[in-house]
Specification:
The chain has 635 residues and is α+β, with helices and mostly antiparallel strands. 35% of the residues lie in helices and 17% in strands. It has helices at residues 2-13, 25-32, 47-63, 67-83, 92-96, 111-129, 133-148, 165-176, 179-191, 235-252, 255-271, 303-319, 323-337, 358-363, 383-392, 395-398, 438-441, 488-492, 548-551, 571-574; strands at residues 355-356, 399-401, 412-414, 420-424, 430-437, 443-449, 453-460, 467-472, 475-481, 498-505, 510-515, 519-522, 534-539, 542-547, 558-560, 567-569, 582-590, 607-616, 628-629, 632-634.
Length: 635
Amino acid sequence: MCGEIIPYQYKVLNDEVEGIPPSHAIGNFQLAAGEEEGIYGGMLFQDSDVGKWIEAASYALDWEKNPLLEEQIDGLVCLMKKAQGEDGYLNTYYTCKKPGERFTNIAHGHELYCAGHLLEGAVAYAKVTGKEEFLHIMIKYIELLREKIGAGQGQMRIYPGHPELEMALYKLYQYTKEEKYLDFMEYFIKERGSQPSFLEKDSGFGEQFKDKWFGLTYHQAHRPVAEQREAVGHAVRAMYLYAAMADLAGEKGDEQLKQSLRALWDDVTGKKMYLTGAVGSEAHGESFGTAYDLPNDRAYAETCASIGLIFWAKRMLRLEKDSRYGDVLEQALYNGAISGISEDGKKYFYVNPLMMLPEEAEARYDLQHVSKERTSWFGCACCPPNVARLIASLKDYIYEDNEGNENLEKGLYIHLYVEGEMRFGRNGESGFAVEGDYIKNGRIRYTYKGKTAEKAIYFRIPSWCGRWEIRLNDERIMGGEADGERDEEAAKRLKKGYAAINRQWQEGDTVDVAFEIKPRLVFANPKVWADAGRCALMRGPVVYCLEEKDNGKNLNAIVVKGKEGWTLGWREEQGYLDGEAAISFPAEREDAEEWGNALYRYKKSARKEIKAVAIPYHSWGNRGCGEMAVWMRVE
């Protein structure tokens, strides 16, 4: 998919695709560099789209060499060098449109946010290609920020209104090994929430709304981060902040931050996360609601928020090996994140509702944020390049080798089950060839390649699976036998949800991992009012939904009867996403026609037996506009 996404997005950023809103993103750099004349276009954070695209393109180069793609990145780097101020400042909005207002709108001006995305792109490009010109451009900018921001005399005692630079600074520290960048990151994180807050006097505080939803909680700045226990405010900002906090906690061994992160994780995933791994239910402020406030039709559930949750989950796994983080990473990846992009990689959802009634989405004011169809691009296009960089960097989420890091448990941890190759050792001289189709049949094989070596390998056992087994060289060595969710007896033998094999590995050794992957009904806590009396359908980690294309209109009239008579159909039979099943199952539909013109009456509807069809949630909306529902009525 990267082969389609990245070239398409480059054309969009260059305004070369007809029929969609112009991006202006690269044009703004040309304007700032003096290569073009005109006026700034787009959102004030348009630079960030270019940074994310460069990061995605860099990861793509790590998969496969591409001289044209590298030439395109080099051209952008040359452009940025020309656009950079003599003092190191690099932001096209304030350079071109508001040159006298630098660092006057910290709450919503996004200067530090844009700097973070550009820096992440620069670090990624340097790591993959060894070319450091872009990195030096960004270091010059970071040094300007270090000079201006901090707790010293004459410095601005501020932190990013929108967290992002914190994660980027940690990556810069990892690449350069220079402590000053870690210190700068730590300052930003530890300063957030100090009172009185500078934000309350900032020109952008509250944006145009000036209401309680855009106060300090919106910025996660209501108290120091180490004291925060409940996820509040803007969901994407929260995810990026928590991810950076996890980076810092792991690097410094900060127990206060770890305690805060565990509480925040429990709050988000235990009370405020959709079944799809989406977070942020409230449109106004793009924010978290109260506990269990998870409406389906008006869900905000921004694609970037699910991506941010994946960032955070990955870092929590780095902090402590516990399969609950891997479970959520997988859940958000297979559902909430990739639902934001179409099968051809050229259309997108910004928000991801769990229910769609097109007529209502078109007519209701409180649903104006919901798009009934995928869109080729957005005026605020943070999500498309974000999902591109996630997909291009996917191999960083599949497994993790902790050898050589004294602060982490030794061994190779497998978090996701994906075909390919895993390498470890100082020069990647050993590893496993990985074959199989985890989503289709729950089976995957690891074949050892390399010199004889002792190593512990840890396999995540998903919480959705009760019946599983692991075979070493065709001999069963462990497994679970429950006909449902996790086998509790087997779970006691695991290490925080991971099955371990520690041995001398020899060329040709095989490990076969098999999970029983079958359709199952899922129910929500009754405190979730929107889902009371309803069920959802999952198969493995994949959430399913009903679409009008298969089931006709009025999906709410469909009632699930039970678990008998379920059948699977594959792409070649029904035209769905390659490698994934459509699930057919017996159900009943209330007969709306026999109501005539009555709005209310004193007896139940008559029902008809039907065969309902559900498809993977992330692939909905690829076959035209129509109704969609994740949660279904059940008896």
